[in-house]
Amino acid sequence: MGSQGTVRSGRAALLRAALLAPLLLQLCGASCPEKELEDREEEANVVLTGTVDEIINVDPVHHTYSCKVRVWRYLKGKSNVNRQILLDGGNKVMIGGFGNPRICDNQVSTGDTRIFFLNSAPEAVGPEHKNELMLNSSLMRITLRNLEDVEHCVEGEREGTEGNGGFCCCQTEGGGS
Ligand SMILES: *[C@@H]1O[C@H](CO)[C@@H](O)[C@H](O)[C@H]1NC(C)=O
């Protein structure tokens, strides 16, 4: 009778919800407020794709660490990476600031490939980070969509166009829209 149909459609709804929820969380960063991609791109003076080669300088108290990262491609700011930062013949860089609690997605493992939003280390973080780039906002997975979104932001900024925020996904503060 009717009850069986209800059970079935209830189950289908549950399944749909179970499939959609993580997708929405991932898209909109609802679990951790994140600035819009456009702002994240503007704040970072270097954006690159790379693979984590080695994890070093783990701080036992603050649980922060640095990584040696093999660079595949600069999406922004190649000229901001000076020679002291480059390692192993120029295709690796040292990146600090993993585990920074001000950054939502701040954890990597060896072998992970990500888009990194970076800045040169400010004087304040001390001499041990002098020749490092610092993680400036959340790590991003490499998908065609993500690469295109970041490239749109970089191009938009270069051309000085206003209001290209539409390209930059729905990572609004508080996870809205
Ligand atoms: C990211 O860089 C901006 C400057 O462009 C700075 O104001 C901000 O504090 C940095 N964020 C983190 C988490 O270091």
UniProtKB/TrEMBL annotation:
Cysteines joined through disulfide linkages: 32-104
GO terms, biological process: receptor clustering
InterPro entries: NtA_dom (IPR004850), TIMP-like_OB-fold (IPR008993)
Annotated keywords: Disulfide bond, Signal
Name of the protein in its database record: NtA domain-containing protein
A GO term from the CC aspect: plasma membrane
SUPFAM superfamilies in the record: TIMP-like
Signal sequence, renumbered to the chain: 1-30
Cell division is among the record's keywords: no
Molecular-function annotations in GO: laminin binding
Domain of life where this protein originates: Eukaryota
Species in which this protein is naturally found: Oryzias javanicus (Javanese ricefish)
Domain (NtA) ranges: 32-164
